[in-house]
Every structure is written in C-alpha cells, then in structure tokens.
Amino acid sequence: MMSNLFDVVVIGAGPGGYVAAIRCSQLGLHTACIDDLKGENGKPSLGGTCLNFGCIPSKALLESSENFERLKHDFGSHGIGAENVSMDVQKMLLRKGKIVSDFTMGIAQLFKKNKVVSIHGSASLLGRDGDLWRIGISGSEEICSKNVIIATGSKSRNLQQVQTDGVQVVDNVGALNFSDVPRRLVIVGAGVIGLELGSVWRRLGSEVTVLESSPLFLSAADEQVAKEALRVFTKQKLSIHFGAQIGTVTQTPEEVTISWRNSQGEDQELNTEKLIVAIGRIPNTQGLGADSVGLKLDSAGRIEVDEYCRTNLPCMFAVGDVVRGPMLAHKASEEGVMVAELIAGQVGCGDLSFVPNVIYTAPEIAWVGKTEQQVRTDGIAYKTGKFPFLANGRARAMGDTGGFVKIVADAETDRILGVHIIGPMASELIQLGVQAMAFAASSEDLARMVYAHPSLAEVMHEAALAVDSRTIHI
C-alpha cells in the first residue's frame, strides 16, 4: 500500500519535475511525482510535453527530413547518386514514436531505480494542515507532504479565431503527426516552434507560408544572426510575412481559409490543407488550486517565485515553464536540481544568466548572454569578433559553410558578454560559450586555448581572435 506522507511531492513529470524528483530521492527525501499526461498511445507517459510532444519528437523529425533533403540535393557533390528518392512518412513517424517510447520508459526505470513513487493523475492543492501540504489526486485520493514542487509546465496558446481540431488546425502536437505531407501548409507564428515545424514539412515537399504578427524576425536573437537566418530561410523557400494580422479562419472538409492583413494594410487570403498555430505557450496552472491556497500568480499567469524558485507559500516551490524566465527544458531541469538541493539543506545555484537558446533549423541558431543590441541599449562599451564558417576547413569538408560565430565582449575588461552562432552544429558549439561565460572568461581566454584541427570549434577560436582584430584565416 502506498504511503500517503512524503518529504516532497512534485507535481508534473516534465524535465523540471522528473529531474527534481530524482534528485530529491538521491538526497534521501521520500519523494512522489504526480503527472496526468498520456502519450500518443493513450497510456500514462512520463517526460512532459518536451519528451512526448516537443523537444525530442520534433528533433527526430528534423533529423529525418534533413537527411531526406541532403540525399535529394546535397549528396551528389560527394559522388553519391540516388534515384527515385522517396519519404515513407509512416515509417518516419514510427521511428519518432519509438524514440519517444524508449525515453519515457527510461524515465519510469529511473524512478524505480531511485525509489521515486510515480502517481498518475491530476493534482490539486487542498491546503495546509500544520506543517504538511494536502494534495488531492484526481479528486479521489489525498496525500500529504512537507514540501511541494510545482512543475506543471506550459501549454500551447490558442488563436482566438479558431479552435485546434487535431486534424486541419493543429498545435505543435498535431503538427508532429501528419499522416501525409500536406501540399500547402500555413503556420501562424515565426518563433522556434513555427520555424522548426515549417522546416520539417518544407523539406518533405510542403509549400509553407508563415504569418508572423511582429514586424521583427527573431527579436530575441542578435540582429546580425536574425538577418542571416531570414536570408537563408527565404532562399530555402520558406515564405515568411511580418506584421501579419489574422482575421477570420474558416474550414471546409477540404481546406482551411485564412483571411489576414499584411504590414501595408492590404487584405489577403490564403487557402491551405493544414494550419499550424504556433503563437507561443502559456503557463499551465489550470486546476492546480492556486486561488484556494493563496498561491500568487503574476499578470502573465506564471507562479511568482524568487531567485531560488520559492513561492509566497511556505515549503512550496515552482520551476520550469510555469515560472519566470525562458521556457526551456534545460532551464527547468537545473531549477529542479537547485530546489531539490535547497530542500535537502544544501546550497543551490539559481543563476539564469547563462542559459543557452537553440533553434534546430538548418542552419542551427544558438546564443547565450547578451545580444549586441542589448549591450548597446545598456550603454556598455563593447567590441565584437565575428568569423564565418566559410573559412573553416571542417565546414568545407562537410559541405555546410553558411553562417558565422560572433562574440560580444566588454571593451574595458574583455569579459565575454554574449556568444551568437548561426551555422552547422551551433547547438553543440554554444556550450563552449556557456562554459566560458560561466567561468567569467575573456575573449583572450578563448583565443589562447588550443583547438583541434580541423574542427568546427576553430570558428569559435577565430571569432575570439577577431575581437582583437587578429584573425589568422581571413
């Protein structure tokens, strides 16, 4: 029989929740994790949106579609010939599903190994009884805990003009499961989700149009990176319209019609087989019982926390997408570890200054720290170094030479303020920038390191040299 008294109860089994639960248990705390998510097979599935419907399945499809496009268009230059190249969408989806299934079962095994009690159901905060929090499970069961960690994540933001139906009008979940390649595809939103999903289906043959309400492209990224990304995506025939205001959306069994107004104020209309709504995500606090226990939320619906993820209530913490900061799995996981260690009486680290951002398009885009425009706005005297992949031997051998690495450094101290990459393996290279900034490195520190040759990391080396105007290979 399951105990109903715990040291820690974690609500949510996404990257923030399951990591927090495992770390709590490792530290000797009797821990339970409550989660109500069901996978594509309709069965309980750990890992949250990231593992089931987000980060992992989308990367599986990105890899499949990129391999398909390379075989069709790029491998000829290597002397590799192929005729009648085709894509079996069902097989691609089965591969994606197996990757997800393997990982979700892996988390279940990690829970078992670390003695985390896994409970499937929806959790609600019922109140405090002395030093214990009472938590209801699916309205039929109740457990108590000394500490609570809320890690309920986020959910897709809806478009007011139309409801997603999972078939013609879909969010990120539906966009991962098209049974066939749509001939025409419209995406509302040119953020990370829209760009990645648009890239998948464009490579497989869809005519993709992206409608973005903002007049700016990738406003969170460095201006030069965003400009280069737009140039490349346009060349790839990803049609992106900025300042687009959505009007009415109507459906027939055959197509979806979107009425919209462009940045010049002209009325437009698009007919499409599928519509993906990718206009961001909102914190998931519905049904949690925040009001009933006095848990403070901010104007955006996020749970208010301090730098250590402590809420306004005693012994209650919140991590991940449901609190301030970027909605990123790796940020949620590190917050989960920090909170677990704080509960166990250790010193947790809550610095979010060096959280990397990645967009897994081709080319990949990644950055950490401040952009040049942010440094300029802050009035900081700065210098920059930039180096293209075109001048790198490894990139040439790979046949992937687009993009560059850019480093922003303080003009007086030379301390690195930001690293920005667009190009091959940017998601891997950015970690060198993260490490450098975490250890308060200067651009000179990066410039003086020895880099393997030939390697893509040499572009980071040359960008560091460029900060002091002493590049070697350009």
Task: Describe the model.
With 474 residues, the protein is of the alpha/beta class. The protein folds into three domains: 214 residues, 3-Layer(bba) Sandwich (FAD/NAD(P)-binding domain); 111 residues, FAD/NAD(P)-binding domain, CATH 3.50.50; 111 residues, Enolase-like, domain 1 (2-Layer Sandwich), CATH 3.30.390.30. It has 14 helices and 22 strands. The strands form five sheets. Strands 1, 2, 3, 4, 5, 6 and 17 form a seven-stranded mixed beta sheet that branches. The protein has a five-stranded parallel beta sheet with strand order 8-15-9-10-11. Strands 18-19-22-21-20 form a five-stranded antiparallel beta sheet, with helices on both faces. Helix 1 packs parallel to helix 9, helix 3 runs antiparallel to helix 4 and helix 3 runs parallel beside helix 6. It is globular, with a radius of gyration of 24 Å.
Key terms:
474 residues, alpha/beta, 5-stranded parallel β-sheet, FAD/NAD(P)-binding domain
Briefly note the CATH topology name of the largest domain: FAD/NAD(P)-binding domain
The major β-sheet equals: 7 strands, mixed
Distance between the termini: 69 Å
Mean pLDDT: 96
Q: pLDDT under 50 segments (min length 5)?
A: none
- Percent in strands: 25-35%
Layout of SSEs?
Layout: E1 5-11, H1 15-26, E2 31-35, H2 48-53, H3 55-73, H4 89-113, E3 117-120, E4 123-129, E5 132-137, E6 141-150, E7 154-156, E8 169-170, H5 172-175, E9 184-188, H6 192-203, E10 207-212, H7 223-235, E11 239-242, E12 245-251, E13 256-261, E14 267-272, E15 274-277, E16 281-283, H8 290-293, E17 316-318, H9 329-343, E18 357-359, E19 364-369, H10 372-377, E20 382-388, H11 393-398, E21 404-410, E22 416-423, H12 426-438, H13 443-448, H14 457-467
Parallel strand pairs: 1-2, 1-6, 2-3, 6-17, 8-15, 9-10, 9-15, 10-11
Antiparallel strand pairs: 4-5, 5-6, 7-16, 12-13, 13-14, 18-19, 19-22, 20-21, 21-22
